[in-house]
């Protein structure tokens, strides 16, 4: 109840501006759209880089600007959660562009937290390991590739969608009222191994 989905290409700056500006009012925002175009570093194409930057970074910045401006104009406190990745913290083979855009997203989120905090808007990231979404299954269906990753996760498994959703709900809620500028790792311990 109260959730109205908007279907649009977030890389289309003007269409995004029109659609999101017409929506609202906002108190909460989750930026979850992402692409993962996996290529070895020496084979990264301009198209892959541009698409990844458009969706993984620029769309977050743009949608967050629109929503934060509305929150500020309404004088309401709010919370923004950006879905990042453990890949923002650890290099992964064939993930040069993905790792880079997610690292940039983490820093963007920290700057947003600093600048939006005085307006009572909290900004955090969740940084999951591989999540068993359609995209996760496509990129991690090879048992040899997935075994190498799972072996580095102390809990011994990839995340399920609910693992990430529950973390997002916590960061959106008043239970995290003093949490901003943080990255919540939902990685089964990957980064400590």
Automatic annotation (TrEMBL):
<dbReference type="InterPro" id="IPR051737">
    <property type="entry name" value="L-xylulose/Carbonyl_redctase"/>
</dbReference>
<comment type="subunit">
    <text>Homotetramer.</text>
</comment>
<protein>
    <submittedName>
        <fullName>D-erythrulose reductase</fullName>
    </submittedName>
</protein>
<dbReference type="GO" id="GO:0005997">
    <property type="term" value="P:xylulose metabolic process"/>
</dbReference>
<dbReference type="Pfam" id="PF13561">
    <property type="entry name" value="adh_short_C2"/>
</dbReference>
<dbReference type="GO" id="GO:0050038">
    <property type="term" value="F:L-xylulose reductase (NADPH) activity"/>
</dbReference>
<dbReference type="InterPro" id="IPR020904">
    <property type="entry name" value="Sc_DH/Rdtase_CS"/>
</dbReference>
<comment type="similarity">
    <text>Belongs to the short-chain dehydrogenases/reductases (SDR) family.</text>
</comment>
<keyword id="KW-0521">NADP</keyword>
<dbReference type="InterPro" id="IPR002347">
    <property type="entry name" value="SDR_fam"/>
</dbReference>
<dbReference type="InterPro" id="IPR036291">
    <property type="entry name" value="NAD(P)-bd_dom_sf"/>
</dbReference>
<dbReference type="GO" id="GO:0006006">
    <property type="term" value="P:glucose metabolic process"/>
</dbReference>
<dbReference type="GO" id="GO:0004090">
    <property type="term" value="F:carbonyl reductase (NADPH) activity"/>
</dbReference>
<keyword id="KW-0560">Oxidoreductase</keyword>
